[in-house]
Amino acid sequence: MEKQPSFKPSSSLPILSAQDLDSLLDDFSSGDPSRRRKHLSLPLLDLSLHSLSRRDLPSSLKLNLLHFVEQHLPSILLPSPPFPSLLSALRYFLPSPDPSPLKEQLLITTTSIFISLLQSPSSPHLQSLTELLLTLINRPNHGPDRQTRGLACESLRELESTFPCLLSEILGHVWLLAQAERTHVAQSYILLLAQVSRNVVVNGLLSSSSSILSTSTQLTPFTIPQIALSDQRVVLSPPSDVNLREIRRVLAFLLDRPRDLTPGAISELTSALVDISGALEECVPAVSALLKVNFSSLLSCHNLLLDHSILSLYHHFSDAFNEDAISNVAHRLQLLATDTGQRLIFRLLALHWLFGSTLLARHVISATSLLGFYPQVFDPLAVKAKKLDAISVIASERDEAVNLLEDGLVCVSSFRWLPGWSTETGVAFRAMHKLLIGIMPHDGSDYGPGRAGLGSIMESTTFTALENMLVNLALEHHVLVPVIATFISRLLQCETHSAIGDRFLQTLDRRLIPNLKPGYGLSFYFPLLEKIAENETVTPKGVLELLKRHMLCLTDKHGPDTGLRSWSQGSRVLGICRVVLKHHNGSQVFSPLSRLLSFTCQNFPDLEIRDNARIYLRMLACIPGKKLRQALCTGKKSGLAPAPLPASLIDVPSPHPSLDQKKSTGIASYIHIERVTPPLVKQSWFLSIPGSVRALSNGSGSVGGAIMDIAASAAPLSDPDKSDKSDKTDFSKTIYQNEAFRVVDPKTGDLLRVLRTHFGCIPDYRVLPGIKIRIPCTLRFESDPFTRTWGSESYDEQSIPALYATKITFSSFSKYGKIPPCRVPFLLGESLKPDLALVPLDQENNENTHHSDFAKFLIELQPEDPMPGLIDILIKANTATGQVVSGSLRPVTVGIEDMFLKAILPPNVSDERIPQYNADLFDALWEACGSSASTGRETFPLNGGKGVAAINGTQSVKLLEVPEDALINAVERHLAGFVVRVAGGPLVRVIRQNRVIENVVWDEKEEDKEEGGIDVDASRNEFSAEKALVAYSGEKSGLEIQFTQTEMEKNNNCRSLVSIGKGNNMGTFCVLVFLPPRYHLLFMMEIGYTSTMVRIRTDHWPCLAYVDEYLEALL
Question: Among 432, 554, 668, 989, which one is least packed by beta carbons within 10 Å?
């Protein structure tokens, strides 16, 4: 008989009273680091575990100690792993025959800590824990410890879920135990059997020739199987006949047990059976029908977990459900959604399930009774919104249900008189938008501008009813006009629904504007009038005539009591006139617009409005259309800015002197702006490109292939009035109209397609907002020198000074665009400390202790040329005494690494395809930037439709003589986000083990697995030996570096991490860096054991001047 393990406290452990233990738990639960720090010197784990055996402590305190160990163990610095102590405690308490909450909680805590801290199943402690749990469950139908056996089964199930195939070799024993158990804990045995069976099936173990239910392997002593220790799973292959029969026996047993399980357990069992059946569907086609037959009766149990189980089966095996089964599922969900006795979240979930499935939604749409979806009076607003969404979907599919939406909106009829920002208004217009999406879905291939389906949609009764609803709302409730304008703007911004937005504006111009009356109330409709004037498909003659009558009305009503109303409304009218000039040809609007402006400049009572109208009239008469639009587009805001008030009304003399130039000269010595992350390269020089070199870049001022204007090379100048048609030119024809027809091979065609997709996502910073980089910085100032400089006689020298209303402005000679200023409302100075202040040793290197008073802000740059530079800083602030602190501070350095961004992803790339897309983009750019590039004179249009870019690549090499572990650490620390591919078996295994670089393409070939070497594709390593800066051998992918005996001995520890084969390289990193606004920097790092060859390619040659220092600074 095995001896009971001893669990006596060590003599070195302190004995704490119950009050001391309560104080320890309170200190850790408070979240205050200072209260926790005083207990970290104690052996907390051993102290907590040995306190469990003390009889003078209450049971509630012992349970709290176990919760404390489970919650705070990761934050406690332990001198040794906690697994031996936990196993000793478990062996001490488990043999007790009496059930106790302490024993069960100890079992849960131990399993949770093992799962949280163990990184791989190769630990011997995991084997000991599994063996202990298997010994515990190997007593079926033993009554006194049935609760403990159930928890042991749940612990084994969690271990099997965390470490798949851990129990795969003892599946036969688990099956026998599940069959033998007759108590209520049979549920835990069944779920354990389902989890182990799922991992066996999913990981392809059915193809083995031996039976999976074999009991030849002993249950105890337990040994972790090799399949659980290896990272690679068996390739899925057809199951053997023996195992197919065995797994069908297990499935039959599991399908017969749902009646003995709780709803939560049935949901877990259904999830496992779905995975098993999905893997066996090809071999056993009838398995899905068996699932439906055994679980379809659960739909009448009125339990949400069971409903979710049925829906999961329907989602994965919809072919097994006939029309009656689908009808039953839809009817059950409809009843659940309309049951007012259900909780809100359940009703919303039922509606979400119902309309989340296409077949279920179509069944509801085809049904005759729709009364259940009408919102009730006392329904919560969330249910009303969801039901209105359902009604919108139904109305879009049924032509006879035109009035469904109007009847449904009765429940939120208060939106007609509530403010536009009310929730009811948002719900109503959301329903209208859902109706439009139902009529014309975003992914519908049969709809779109210029296609046959669009005309029939706009002539349908549903669309006509929606038009009437918008017109009536605009006429009767002017408060909703801004909401209608926003609704139409959203449609215009969508590519699919832009035609609907144009149609709405045409309807409003035809039916709304004739019914509007001039007067002060017309100002409510200015947002809609501006939208109509901005749209090119609507002739703004009606708008201009209405505005002319409105200006006449304002002139007649002007009097001494008018105030600023005439000026305000006149300014907004001129703003609409400016919009008309920007978006319409002058010949089309000349007559009505000239009459409006002529009347305004002659008769309007406000002098400023008359002057501005006269300027617009002269511009309309004298400046051609294209030049006029260019002149008006200089300002981004439509309308005229209000005139500033006279200076005498706002200038109040300050009682203190505003600015002292002598005091402001040395502020850089005590006011500091520092980067949060210092640059890697301490740059002391910057590359300056002469003007003659810039002139070679198509006159753009950028280097390395600038953005070229399409219109500049497309066609000669045309008539100014017809110049607006150039915006609608087919750019794909314009770019190549002067070039010969080119025939390319399929490989080059794929390369060009990837590059066009990539460059099509890059915004043209000349017409669209450019890509910005952000540099986090901090602002602080020293209190002592600041007080000596800016203090006064009434100023307390012991108080902490402060800066108020600080404004920081930036400027730079580098091409970073306009840098927006930053503002800091309030900032305290650093605390005044004596020169001989005692600083705690553990706070000596703490940055927050040394600089506790600082303000954080971001410097936003929009680089037009990705080059390092300096940002000059000018600060202006107020002191507590009213003085103005102004002056220049030390400049902030912008490094080359600040320009590093990830490549822009197209919107249609899913998360699973991102690694492969980045790898394909790297290959395309690497080929395009090479010396043998096949892209030729190819140009790529940018996002914005105004410019194109060409790739002029260059290349270089850099030899880094460092060990591979140092280089791998540097890449993981600084370039992990930019790595797109890791090639080579040894390198892949090291990187995967580190778990820093993820979501990349792993290129691990069979030769690498067997030999430890790497064979990188020759096309990716193509590089001209004559152009290389360092000579290298072309026969092998890496450098031939001879190791001395001393070096070989020195690197034995590093070489033990990977298997060394015939090759001299571990593998290759492929790094893709995007340099705004449109350039790229590519690294191919061939990792050697003592040196690394970095091959560099880029389409921006000036950045090569900084790459060498950056690569050296990485190490």
Answer: 668
Confidence band of 1049 (pLDDT split at 50, 70, 90): very low
Instruction: Locate the DSSP E strands across 540-619.
Output: none
Q: How far is CA 973 from CA 990, 993, 997, 1082, 1094, in A?
A: 15, 15, 10, 18, 17
Radius of gyration of the chain (CA): 37
pLDDT for 921 equals 93
Residue 1086 lies in a domain: yes
**Each residue of 671-714: pLDDT tens digit?**
999 999 988 887 655 555 544 344 334 434 444 445 655 444 33
Domain boundary (608, 631, 654) is at 631
713: Cβ contacts below 8 Å, ≥ 6 apart: 738
Question: Cα dist. 194→168, 180, 207, 252, 295 in Å?
Answer: 12, 16, 19, 12, 16
Per residue in 217-233, pLDDT (tens digit) is 888 888 888 888 876 65
What is the C-alpha separation between 407 and 439, in angstroms, rounded? 19
What is residue 399's predicted lDDT score, i.e. its pLDDT?
A: 57
Structural domains in the chain (count): 2
Q: Within a domain: residue 559?
A: yes
Q: Are 463 and 438 in contact (CB under 8 A)?
A: no
Give the pLDDT of residue 694.
42
Helix-helix angle 526-534:498-511, to 10 degrees: 120
Looking at residue 1086, the DSSP 8-state letter turns out to be E
302-337 pLDDT, tens digit per residue, is 677 777 777 777 777 766 666 666 677 777 777 777
Residue 596 inside a domain? The answer is yes
In a domain, 549, yes or no: yes
Q: Which residues lie below 8 Å from residue 444, measured CB to CB, with a gap of 6+?
A: 453, 496
Is 138 buried (19+), middle (13-18) or exposed (0-12) by CB count in 10 A?
Answer: middle
Q: Which of 455-459, 594-598, 829-833 has the highest mean pLDDT?
A: 594-598
Burial 224-238 (b: 16+ CB within 10 A, else e): bbebbeeeeeeeeee
Spatial distance between the Cα atoms of 667 and 659, rounded to a whole number of angstroms:
13
- Buried b / exposed e over 774-788, threshold 16 CB at 10 Å, is ebebebbbebeebbe
Of the residues 579, 606, 631, the one at which a domain ends: 631
Q: Which helix (H) or strand (E) holds 804?
A: strand 802-811
Lowest mean pLDDT among 603-612, 647-656, 833-842, 850-859: 647-656
Helices H / strands E in the chain, number of each: 46, 16
Distance between CA atoms of residues 102 and 250, nearest Å:
35
Structural domain including 602 reads 536-631
